[in-house]
Amino acid sequence: MLTRYSRAEVTWIDCVTPTPPEVRALMQEFGIDPSIAEELILPSYRPKVDRRGDVIYVVLHFPLLRTSHRHPGQEIDFIIGRRFLITTRYESIDPLHSFAKAFEVESVLGSPGVSHGGHLFVAMVQNLYRALGEECDVLDQRLREIEEHIFNGDERRMVTQLSQEGRIIHDFRQALGPHGEMLGSFDSAGAKYFGVEFSYHVRPLLESYRRVERRIENLRDSLNELRETNNSLLSTKQNEIMKTLTIVASVIFPLTLISSIFGMNTKYLPVVGMQYDFWVVIGIMALLTCSLFLYFKKKKWL
């Protein structure tokens, strides 16, 4: 499906899972290198920045977590020309919908600011980075909720939650990692294509990327701290359980030994046969139990 937007003299064509005939029509309309057509039809798993003919071809993956997707990163292909920008994607990406609405409103109002495809690309990717910042806010809130559960005694269930959040953060970093190098390459290519002054517009884009990168690194550090805290609390709780079981076993063992001795089938057993022999044996066992508990208390094991 192709959707076309226009603002001033710049045209944006947004393609969602384009068909071969649609791609061929775009190649002919804008005079784009046919080698790009093959890459637009199928997803690319590696980011790239490439100058081909009279366009700059950029492939980036964005980790937009709250939208359903099959891969850790959602791919967007950008074909940047002087008077046009073509975006190709294979899934629905919410920030692009909001950007399209804003683009249409500004087109109706005749707002200035977009003089070529490079400017439109910078504005669009900055909008995507703002969306990633919101995703970081969601992750941060999840980690805060996990922290509350950890200190409320729910450490065991939080092991799974921490692992899930760790995988999300890992996928986020994997998709976002190559952006720094790709934006640096785009800065160089854009300066040659649109002029040296274009680098002035790319610098805020690089800063937006670095801001998101710092956020996700902080989230990873927070996750690691929470995981260590959770593991420490779990270990402490397990140690307390083991200590309690050991103390119980230490108390039960001598009692079991005494009952076994007095249950032996022999001709002579001390105490057995005397008046109140049962209560004497019980008294010995109770005395031994109290003595052990007092000993454990003195050692501060209880």
How would you sum up this structure, described in words?
The protein has 302 residues and is α+β, with helices and mostly antiparallel strands. The protein folds into two domains: 233 residues, CorA soluble domain-like (Beta Polymerase, domain 2); 59 residues, Methane Monooxygenase Hydroxylase, Chain G, domain 1, CATH 1.20.58. The protein has eight helices and six strands; from the N terminus they run E-E-H-H-E-E-E-E-H-H-H-H-H-H. Strands 1-2-6-5-4-3 form a six-stranded mixed β-sheet. Helix 1 packs antiparallel against helix 2, helix 5 runs antiparallel to helix 7 and helix 7 packs antiparallel against helix 8. The protein is rod-shaped and about 115 Å long. About 3% of the residues have low confidence.
Radius of gyration: 34 Å
Categorize the overall geometry: rod-shaped
Strand order of the largest sheet: 1-2-6-5-4-3
How is the CATH topology of the largest domain named? Beta Polymerase, domain 2
**What order do the SSEs take from the amino end to the carboxyl end, as H and E?**
EEHHEEEEHHHHHH
User: How large is the share of residues in beta strands?
Assistant: 5-15%
The beta-strand count equals 6
Mean pLDDT: 81
Give the CATH H-level superfamily of the largest domain: CorA soluble domain-like
